[in-house]
Each structure stands twice: as structure tokens, then as C-alpha cells.
Amino acid sequence: MREPDLIGQTLSLFGVQKRYGPTWAVQDASIDIAAGEFVSIVGPSGSGKTTLLSMIAGFEVPSAGTLHVGHVDVTHIPANRRNIGMVFQRYALFPHMTVQANVEFPLRMRGLKRRSDARSKVEALLDLVQLRALAGRYPHQLSGGQQQRVALARALVFDPPVILMDEPLGALDKKLRGAMQIEIKRMQERLGATVIYVTHDQEEALTMSDRVVVMRDGLIEQQGTPAELYRSPETAFVADFIGTVNFVPARIYAVNAHAVSLDVAGCAALVVPFKNLRAKGLATGATCRLAIRPEHLTLIPFETTADGDLTGRLETVIFLGAHTTALVRLDDAASTVVSVQMNASAIDLPAKGDRVALRFAEHMPLLFPHDGEVTA
Q1: How far apart are CA 255 and CA 267, in angstroms?
Q2: Which of 158, 213, 274, 349 has a Cα at 20 to 30 A from 263?
Q3: How far apart are CA 211 and CA 204, in angstroms?
């Protein structure tokens, strides 16, 4: 059986499902991934993202639905015939092989006969990941970041047009993760490969991806560019999972042709345009929730409170280097705590326990129905 030609082809999933007994791991997943695109699949543990990646790789056969490369159905082509590179969280390096031999292994499995050709390709990849000087070392003699780069070189050495990565940076510390994110993205752009990247780290997905697919309970909740998901989440779950958001209780007291008027947290009145509504049929008297990004609120002295401002008490201030976060407990029955992101150079902040006010920035909040828990 010939390997499918993935070069320049769109990888498409049509209604893909996976069921283990009575449990649905993936339900009705449909995605088109263009050649050269970097797509991240994100979601909490148990959302189905790794199962979806396993079906793309050929390690799992869908219970229903099909996978296509261009117009060719590859659903039942085995993993070793799909011409796809894989990078795992635990690297899966052979401990008894040197770095050189680990990277060369896929070429030997594919029958590259001339040793000089294999050596040339391996050396080129080791140069790319800056490990040429360590070619004779064994995995246990390398740091975690170096092992990750060996795994990446091994996945790239046979020029796969598609590379699948399953939590590849999960075992690294935060600083090294950041460096490897840049390294992987740089190499992907240089080689023009299609990357499908599974992670539970939404910040990682936003940093690296052309497009992000958000999964929840086996379903695709939303897919789009990082900016689309951050600015225009379709559900409260996506708003909460992608970035940081405050949910503030509200009640509708009027509806007109273009907007709804709200009583927010019992301490402010606000008019939200219909374009910001993420629910249909909201009527007068209905309870709902506003989703407000911390950077879209401004902390002001309580004495300057105006109509439309929220009021509360400053609980704490957290210095985070590039910015400062203030936590404010609102004057509502639920004692809602919201975070406000400010410039790190902000001075003359109120003291902890002082009354303060919060003003909405020019970015209007999104309005979601009250029902449905946020479980991210």
C-alpha cells in the first residue's frame, strides 16, 4: 500500500467519532487543515483532543466518519503508511542509541540505503536544532530541552509534510517551554510543514497557532484564529478557557431593537448591544452573566464613581512583572471577585480594603446566559 501524498494537500475530517463502549471520546468532529497551517487542539483533560490526534495519526480507527487527504480517503490506512511525523510529551527516544542514531532511525525504517545520504540529512537536522556537537551523546546525557529537540529532529528527518505533536513541551519548565515554542514555530515556518499540536495550555496555543480548535466533552466547541477566539468566544466555556475573564452576574430590565439594558451585580446599569449577546431569546427579567476581560476594566477612586461603574473593595494587588493585577470584591449579593489588569508602573493605588470603582473600557463585555457552568 502506497503512502498518501500529503504535500500541498488539505487534511480534512468529516464527522469523525470515536466511542469506547458507552463512552463517547470524540463526537462529530469536522475540521479542514490547510497545507502549511499550524493548528492547535486545546481543551481540558478528557475533552478528546489526544483521541482525535490518534485518529489522524492512524493509531485509532474512527467509530464513524472519514479522514481525507485532498480527495483521497485515508481513514483505514495504517499509521506506518501515513507519512506523518510524531512528537510525544515523553520524547520516546531510544535510550541505547546516540543522538545521531535516534535521528537516523526513521530513515533506516524507510529503507534509505546509502549511509552517506542518511548521515547528510541527519547532520542537517542536528544543525537546525543546534545539537550537532552532541551527536555522540545518549539521551540520559541530555537536558529535557535537548531531548525535546532530538525528538523534533527525528520527526522532521524524513521530510514529513504533516507533523503531529501531543503535549510535546509538557515536561519542561516554564522558561524552557517559552524558548521551545519559539523554536518549533520558527522551524515549522522555515520548513512549510503542517503541524497539528495538542496542548492543554491555552497560552501556548495562542502563541504558536494560525488556528485553534477548542474541545469539550468530545465535541468541538469552537475553532478560529487566536484573535477570534479571544475577542469573540461563542460560549462561556471558550471565553473562560481562552485567556482570563471575569464573569459578573446581571439581570435584564429592558430590551429594545438594538440592545439590552442590564442591572450589573446590583451596583451598575449598562446597555449592551445585540452584537455582544451570545444567547437568543433573552427577555426582560432574565438573569445572565457578563464576560469581561481584566484589561477592559479600569480601577478608579471611589469618589469619582459615575453611572455605569461597578463598586467594591480592593482585596489585594499582585505584581506580575509586565503588569499588575488588582482583585476587587464587588458590592453584590454574591460577593463576586473580579480581576483588573493595570500597567506595572501604576502608582498611587488605593490601600487594601479601600472602597474603589471599576469602569468599563471601550470594549463592551459579552453577555452569556446564566445557565451552564464554566468547567474549564
Answers
A1: 19
A2: 349
A3: 12
- Give the rounded distance of the alpha carbon of 132 from its chain centre: 32
- H or E element at residue 358: strand 355-360
- Measured CA to CA, the distance from residue 91 to residue 149 in angstroms comes to 9
Average pLDDT per consecutive 10 residues, the chain (376 residues; last block may be shorter): 62 94 93 94 92 92 92 87 78 87 83 67 83 91 86 82 85 78 84 89 90 95 95 93 92 86 85 83 84 92 89 90 89 86 76 90 83 44
- The pTM (predicted TM-score) of the whole model is 0.85
Question: Does residue 206 contact residue 212 with C-beta atoms inside 8 Å?
Answer: yes
**Cell numbers at residue 132, please?**
550537532
Q: What are the DSSP E strand ranges found in 218-309?
A: 219-224, 246-255, 259-264, 268-273, 287-292, 297-301
Q: What is the pLDDT of residues 299-344, one digit of tens each?
A: 999 998 888 889 999 999 988 877 889 999 998 877 899 999 988 7
Phi, psi angles (nearest 5°) of residue 280 = -105, 155
> In one letter, which amino acid is 280?
K
